[in-house]
Amino acid sequence: QKQKAFETFMATRKAELKTLQATLQRQEKAMGEKNKLHSDSRTERDDTMAQLKADEVFFADTKVSCKDAASVWSTRCRMRTEELQGIVAAIKILSDDQANKIFKEATRSFMQLQEGHRSVHSSSFRHAQTKQQIL
Predict the structure, then answer these.
(1) How confident is the model at residue 125 (pLDDT cuts 50, 70, 90)?
(2) How wide is the angle at C-alpha 60 spanned by C-alphas 58 and 64, nearest 5°?
(3) Which contacts (CB < 8 Å, 24+ apart) does range 59-63 have?
(4) How far apart (Å, rounded) are the C-alpha atoms in residues 60 and 67?
(5) How far is the C-alpha of 38 from the C-alpha of 46, rounded, in Å?
(6) pTM of the predicted protein model
């Protein structure tokens, strides 16, 4: 009877050992999966942080670029407005009754009636051209 009790005790212990070993394997597997998940999450977090820093730099550069473009556009609009105001003022001056009268009287005075003296540049050019033909 002691032998049978010992065999039963040993069988129970062997069954407990198998159960404990199976439990240990499941826990080690779960722990390995958790460690892998933790490692993957840490890598993903590091990648995300690096991407965030790159995006923040890009955003800052884009903000500066947009401010520069807005400044250029503002200057361009201001200059265009000034140009249009100048055109309006010129039209007002040129369409004035007194200006029309002056232009009507001055039509003959703007016409070239005779050729003036030649410039030194054109005569020296002709002189160089004739020397080249001689050579």
Answers:
(1) low
(2) 115
(3) none
(4) 11
(5) 12
(6) 0.47
